[in-house]
Amino acid sequence: MARGKKKGKRAQTRHIDRNNELEMSNERFEKYYKAQQILPEDEWDAFLDALRQPLPSTFRIAAHRQMKDVLTDAIKNKFVPQLEAARLDGEPLPVPKPIPWYPDGLAWHVGLAKKELKRSPEYKKFHEFLVYETEVGNISRQEAVSMLPPLFLDVRPHHSVLDLCAAPGSKTSQLLEAMDPPTGILIANDSDQKRAHLLVHTCSRLPSSGLMVTNLDASVFPALKCKERPLKFDKILADVPCSGDGTLRKNIGIWAKWNPLEGNGLHSLQLRILQRAMRNLKYDAAPDDRPRIVYSTCSLNPVENEAVVAAALNSVPGFELVDVSDTLPSLIRRPGMSSWRPAVGRDVDLSYSSYEEYCAALEASATGPAPTKDGTETEKEAIKGADNADNAEDEVKKGVENRTNGRPVRNKMLKTQWPPENTGDLHLERCVRVYPHLQDTGGFFVAVLQRRDPSPRAVPPPKPEVKRPIEAQGSNGTKSRPAAEERAAKKAKLLHDEVEFKDAECPSTVDARVEEEPETTEIVGTFKEDPYTFVSPNDPIVQSCVEKMILSDTFPRSNLYVRNAAGTPIRSLYLVNNMVREVMLQTDYKRMRLISAGVKLFGRSELGNTRRKRKQAEGETASASVEQVEFRVLHEGLLALLQYIDQESVLIGGVKELRAMLEAYYPLCSTFEEPFRTRIGKCPSGSYVIRFAPGDYGHVSLSHDLFLPLWKSEVSVSLMIDKRAKSALSLRFFGEDITVAGRQTAKRREEKGAKEEDAMIEVDENVDAGGDEVEDVS
Ligand SMILES: C[S@@+](CC[C@H](N)C(=O)[O-])C[C@H]1O[C@@H](n2cnc3c(N)ncnc32)[C@H](O)[C@@H]1O
């Protein structure tokens, strides 16, 4: 999304008529991009035409391993043939097709825009399937080009990965999939608190013991440690906030508002984020697994793209652009630009061929208004263009404070917005540009960077001790600390960056991993998360969970934590992998602004505890001893737990049992057929895992093992998955929603008629965890 801000759907589309070419145009946009020669002259009309067309729906199968095959099979062999036979107003409909450049056929191009999907009954059914599978996290409705950066990053399960600007999290989900099962760590970060929580929600669909979510300003992302050493990353994604004009097909409101100041205003923040990424990249590497950074935007503007990359390469020595022309060979792309001209002012003044020329012109001009405390009109535009108030203030100050021949000039432009003299040496053509008309997508920019020489470097000279407070940000991205602290932080950061770039030039003799960074000791601003405390592996509740589930000795019980200072399991127990544990133990959670880590594995069971209370009420000796506080396996934690569960303790069911458990909330044990009836009847009450084995059962077939958490009470059982997950399961295997909730919805639909039915699907879609927010916006 443009600059990553949440925008109401209505705000984006209300005033624009797609059929009115005038409304879908902007003189400044055309003047600016024509002058930049982003495309050969003869492609310009096709480019503009494509920008005015609705963006086709695309989605990605985002499930864990086996489920990927199940869903691909359902789409290919069930839905596609149905849609091939379908007609709308007598005409054949476009049929979903795999996106040619996406590996393993896991991403699909639906062919119809979202609104049109519901006009044909066949598509409506397919749409419903997409809605349910999206809800349970098996499908991510994501813009095609937004799927690119994780593919270029090439992440593997053992990597340490940093996703600097991650919300709402569609690319983070791709990274999580690539790290399945994770032995490394993925830190997904976003500076906006609300969006960081949305990120947690998105990631909860692919629970991972290797994930941490933080809420920091990426441009000052702090030094973290792991095993007493600085934590450096194998792969870093900098999918930075941008003006977002590559999303014009979807966010048509941008047509009316577009001006070059948006991009100008973001350049400095984008550069600082990329420099921070470079600072955090690992040195050592295997030849076939070199650490890399992917810098990406959904903007077409060279000031936000090549200019940022060029400035970063020139300011942090030792990096180069990677030639990725062999990666994703079916992706139609254009090379990065080596010349461009930034626009000065809202009305696309392209008169200045260099920064020096621009400054000279300003100085020569005696007629312009004097700089004011708040900045001139053009400087105020920069405030609007910058990502947050603070950053904008920086831009204005930088402008006012810039000097030519010792004299202050009014200037909000930066030298780095112009092409540097050495563009030829930087191989900017290695950047990847994707335009809408090339393969019916949005516009996008990707650059892949790596260290030129990956060998470890020298121990840098000792650094001054700098106390750098952590940035605290409100949900709107503005910071909330007092001005004096702010100044101190900025001073500290400048000093820090100065040292940082000096270090980068140090010749290499000794392993850099011993390098230290300034520690932050002061936490500023509000941070209201509960503490993270690792639980003793001998805690009675941990013991009881391990014993009841018959977990193997390899189960990492030391990696279980709770969200209270005492370390007592009260409501939930979370599991992280070894690497995440190390990082959590070595860095204060407030310093990291850690808002989530790992996967919720066990939850206190209300069913079990109700039974305990009932027994107490009936006068049975039932003390509130910890052993009797029942914890159960949670659906979201099951995948992480499976490898440790003794297979003997897993119940086995078939399709009949699955059907019964979907059709009723609490089917009675006595109603099941043998041998399941006897087996379940003998089980003491408590938490279990049930496996539905693959096989053909009449007209239904299960192609893979399906493991689900089950609660056994004295006389009945209950699948412990939420009702949406039950509906998705039911639709996937039985072709209809046989659940209690599904039957009730169908009945309501029947009663209320077709018109309201459409409205209900619309609601379902919006419930889809944030609608547009989760469907990727960048
Ligand atoms: C283009 S969006 C990222 C989209 C995301 N990568 C995805 O695939 O879903 C940019 C994000 O950067 C965040 N952001 C803006 N300024 C930031 C900063 N200084 N540090 C970290 N995140 C920032 C915004 O809140 C926004 O969520």
TrEMBL record:
<keyword id="KW-0808">Transferase</keyword>
<feature type="compositionally biased region" description="Basic and acidic residues">
    <location>
        <begin position="747"/>
        <end position="758"/>
    </location>
</feature>
<dbReference type="GO" id="GO:0000049">
    <property type="term" value="F:tRNA binding"/>
</dbReference>
<feature type="compositionally biased region" description="Acidic residues">
    <location>
        <begin position="759"/>
        <end position="778"/>
    </location>
</feature>
<feature type="region of interest" description="Disordered">
    <location>
        <begin position="366"/>
        <end position="421"/>
    </location>
</feature>
<keyword id="KW-0489">Methyltransferase</keyword>
<feature type="binding site">
    <location>
        <position position="217"/>
    </location>
    <ligand>
        <name>S-adenosyl-L-methionine</name>
    </ligand>
</feature>
<comment type="similarity">
    <text>Belongs to the class I-like SAM-binding methyltransferase superfamily. RsmB/NOP family.</text>
</comment>
<feature type="binding site">
    <location>
        <begin position="165"/>
        <end position="171"/>
    </location>
    <ligand>
        <name>S-adenosyl-L-methionine</name>
    </ligand>
</feature>
<feature type="compositionally biased region" description="Basic and acidic residues">
    <location>
        <begin position="374"/>
        <end position="384"/>
    </location>
</feature>
<dbReference type="InterPro" id="IPR057285">
    <property type="entry name" value="Pre-PUA_NSUN2"/>
</dbReference>
<feature type="binding site">
    <location>
        <position position="239"/>
    </location>
    <ligand>
        <name>S-adenosyl-L-methionine</name>
    </ligand>
</feature>
<keyword id="KW-0819">tRNA processing</keyword>
<dbReference type="Pfam" id="PF25376">
    <property type="entry name" value="Pre-PUA_NSUN2"/>
</dbReference>
<feature type="region of interest" description="Disordered">
    <location>
        <begin position="744"/>
        <end position="778"/>
    </location>
</feature>
<dbReference type="InterPro" id="IPR029063">
    <property type="entry name" value="SAM-dependent_MTases_sf"/>
</dbReference>
<feature type="region of interest" description="Disordered">
    <location>
        <begin position="453"/>
        <end position="484"/>
    </location>
</feature>
<dbReference type="GO" id="GO:0005737">
    <property type="term" value="C:cytoplasm"/>
</dbReference>
<protein>
    <submittedName>
        <fullName>S-adenosyl-L-methionine-dependent methyltransferase</fullName>
    </submittedName>
</protein>
<keyword id="KW-0539">Nucleus</keyword>
<keyword id="KW-0820">tRNA-binding</keyword>
<dbReference type="GO" id="GO:0030488">
    <property type="term" value="P:tRNA methylation"/>
</dbReference>
<dbReference type="GO" id="GO:0005634">
    <property type="term" value="C:nucleus"/>
</dbReference>
<feature type="domain" description="SAM-dependent MTase RsmB/NOP-type">
    <location>
        <begin position="47"/>
        <end position="452"/>
    </location>
</feature>
<feature type="active site" description="Nucleophile">
    <location>
        <position position="298"/>
    </location>
</feature>
<dbReference type="InterPro" id="IPR018314">
    <property type="entry name" value="RsmB/NOL1/NOP2-like_CS"/>
</dbReference>
<keyword id="KW-0949">S-adenosyl-L-methionine</keyword>
<dbReference type="Pfam" id="PF25378">
    <property type="entry name" value="PUA_NSUN2"/>
</dbReference>
<keyword id="KW-0694">RNA-binding</keyword>
<dbReference type="GO" id="GO:0016428">
    <property type="term" value="F:tRNA (cytidine-5-)-methyltransferase activity"/>
</dbReference>
<dbReference type="InterPro" id="IPR057286">
    <property type="entry name" value="PUA_NSUN2"/>
</dbReference>
<dbReference type="InterPro" id="IPR001678">
    <property type="entry name" value="MeTrfase_RsmB-F_NOP2_dom"/>
</dbReference>
<dbReference type="InterPro" id="IPR023267">
    <property type="entry name" value="RCMT"/>
</dbReference>
<dbReference type="Pfam" id="PF01189">
    <property type="entry name" value="Methyltr_RsmB-F"/>
</dbReference>
<dbReference type="InterPro" id="IPR049560">
    <property type="entry name" value="MeTrfase_RsmB-F_NOP2_cat"/>
</dbReference>
<feature type="binding site">
    <location>
        <position position="190"/>
    </location>
    <ligand>
        <name>S-adenosyl-L-methionine</name>
    </ligand>
</feature>
<dbReference type="InterPro" id="IPR023270">
    <property type="entry name" value="RCMT_NCL1"/>
</dbReference>
